[in-house]
Structure formats: structure tokens, C-alpha cells
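QUALITY CONTROL LOG
STEP: pairwise intake check
CHECKER ROLE: data steward
CRITERIA: each record must contain a sequence immediately followed by its C-alpha cells, with no blank fields

ENTRY 1 OF 2
RESULT FIELD BELOW
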Amino acid sequence: MNKPYIIGVTGGSGSGKTKFIKNLVNHFSNEQVCLISQDNYYQPRNTQPVDENGVLNFDVPESMDLEKMVIDIKNLLQGKTVILQEYTYNNPHLPGNIQAMEHIMLSRRIIRDEQERGYDLDDVLYRYQHHVMPSFRKYILPYKAFCDIIVNNNEGIDGAIGIMVAYIENLLQKSSS
């Protein structure tokens, strides 16, 4: 087995992480790239932390089963198979470091959460103001200086996808030689 590499992608809600990853993995076979999303590690809804107004807060580390995620990543690094249940964002109708300006992230989140998750505008705005941005500023932004690559997604990701595809192809080529 070739040495696996881990590439982490992080960013604020609505910054384009999912779009970036889906575009990136389309350039590789399932044997070359494995995608594991932190979204699939949310704790059960009935155990989610709540804020001072009793609203569920999915944007703090306590909302995730991080121990399970670490176990699964270790298993993948050892060549083992990991089966995940896709998290559906509490929408029963769904099938089982990127950065952007805050107003763009909010606009994307409003559209996505209404269309894909069934959240109304008031709920999206409340969570954005009280959960999303405070968590982004506390848990993601302080680590920006430690990133190897920062993708500016205010206007698109095509150039960044090309760079990452070339980078990963180079890693795969080196590991197979």
C-alpha cells in the first residue's frame, strides 16, 4: 500500500468547501482519493449543545463525534474500510480552507439552508450571527496562518482546483515510484 496523505479543507460556513471538494475528487478515481467529511460526524440531534436561547448549536466542537472521526481516519491510514452514514442536516428529504468574504458566505448559506435543509431565513440569520461566525472566529480563523494553501473563493475556485489536482497528482506519482 502506498503511503496515504491527508489533506484537510476548512473554512467558514458557505465558503465553498463542499463545492471545492466535490470538484477536486472528480479528477481522481476512488482508488486514488478517499473523501471523509466532518459533516458525517455530528452527534445525534437530541444530544446537541444548545445556546442561551435554547437553540441547537451545530457549530461548536461539542456538536461533533471527533473521537469517532479520529478512529476512522486512523483506520483509513491503515488501509481499512470505513463505512459512514451520511448526515442529512436534519432534513428527512435529503439522501443519505476555503475562504470568502462574510457577506458572500452568508448569502450562500441562506440559499443553501433554505433549499437543501428547509431552514427559514430567521433561523439561518440567527444561527449565522450567534453560532456560525463566533465559532468561525474562535475555531478556524486563528489557524489561518498555519495553512499551506488558502483558496480565495469570492469569485470562483477553478484555478485553485487546477493547482490542487496537480499537487495531488505529483504526490500520487511520487508514492507509486
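ENTRY 2 OF 2
RESULT FIELD BELOW
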Amino acid sequence: MKRFLFSIVLFLNGIYAFAQGTEKQTADVFSSMTQNDIIMMIVVGLLVFIAIVLMFMIYIAYGFIQVLKGGKEAVANQTPLIDFTKAVPIERESEILFDHEYDGIRELDNQLPPWWVYMFYATIVFAVFYMWYYHINQDGKVQENEYKQELVDAEILMKQMSEKVNENTATLLTDASRVSKGAEIYTQNCKACHGAKGEGTVGPNLTDDYWLHGGDIKQIFKTIKYGVPQKGMISWQAQLSPSQIQEVASYITTLRGTNPPNPKDPQGEKIQ
């Protein structure tokens, strides 16, 4: 009985020490679990608890049976129904001593505790299922897959955030790839009226310091978005997304001061 209780205490103490070292990881696991996962974990925990209780009750019942059969002396000499340690009593240690001796120290040929052996076998079984679930069948998310999924989620989030930009929140883009996209949009949609290099044709010159409707990023964004119908410039919000308007507006700001050939005369007010 004492051996059984001592083994349980050691087992629980090991679980507690492991939990202390992995508190954050455990919290992350629980936060990502679905309701079905939590229910399944609770059910498994209850089944394990019931199994331990049943084993303990069987152990007690076995002891009572031995008492009824042979009294206290029989109980003292009985072999436990479930021996969790298989430890040899001190008075019998001479039976399991090895022949060799080093500096007066002799070694006992003790068996590994069954509870430790069973847990070791359990880890092997767990490793097989883990390998199959995560690496062969690939149902679970290993760190590499989680990282790839987070990159995809981040890209989606960035796109969603860029689609929410408007004339009040637009900021000047400095990323070369996005400014390059703005240049492509300009070439496809704007050069017919403003010239291939922004020198101006039907529309005003975009390379000088004079602007009809404002020359900062928010004002340019607003002009592109809503257009200037009275002067023939259409609204582009139906053809271009908010992120595309921000890209082409950012590109237009790079044209200022480029001094292309044959620029159109200045129009509007000079800005600093």
C-alpha cells in the first residue's frame, strides 16, 4: 500500500514539474483547442481517473480477501496484486547483489519500476501516433505549417487593412514594389490624359509645383477616387480598389520635379 501511494506521489510530482516548465505552451494549446477537443480531453481524463480508482479498489479488495483467508500473518507475507515498484526488501538485498565491487561499493540488480516501464512504453505508442498524425497523414499543424499559415493570414490581414484606406487615412507608400504597381496602374489608366511621364496633355502637368486640387497624398487620393467630373476626369473608385488608388497616388508624388520634355504650362496654386 505504501509503495502504491509513494508511486502516485512521484508521478503527480513529475507532472507538476513538467507543467511548471511548459505553462506558456500549455496556455497556447488550450487557446487553440475547439470545444470538441476540450470535451474529449475531459472524457479521457475522467476515464483515466476511473481506471485508477478501480485499480485502487481492486487492490483494497484483494487485501481484504487475504485477511479473510489467512489473517494478518498472511497479509504480511503476501505478494501484492499490483506491485508498482518491484522493490526488493532491504533484508533480501543480498540476494540481488552483483559480484563486482568498486572502492567498496557494490551494485544491486534491481528491476526497473513497472510504472516507469509502462510510461516508457506509452511514450513509444504516443510517438507512433504522433508521427502518423503530424508527419505522415499531416492532419496536425507542425511548426513549419503553422508558420506558413501565419504568413498567409498576415497577407490577408494586410490586404484587408489596405482595402479600408480612404482619403482621410491614406499614407505615402515607400515600398518599391507597391510604388512600381502604382506606376503600372498609371501607365494603363492615366497617361492618356497626363502624359507618359506626367508632363500633362489633356490633364494638368503632374511634375511641377502647381496643383489644382492639392498635391499631398490625401488630396491626390481624393481626386483619383472621386474624379473631377466638371473637367472630364472620371471617378476611379469603381475601377480601382482603395489600395490601388493609394499605390498610384504614391507613384504620382514621385513625378514631382522630374522635369520631363514638353511639359504643360502650370495650372492651379503653387505648393511648397
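INTAKE CHECK: passed for both entries
DESCRIPTIVE NOTE, ENTRY 2: The chain is about 60% helix and 5% strand.
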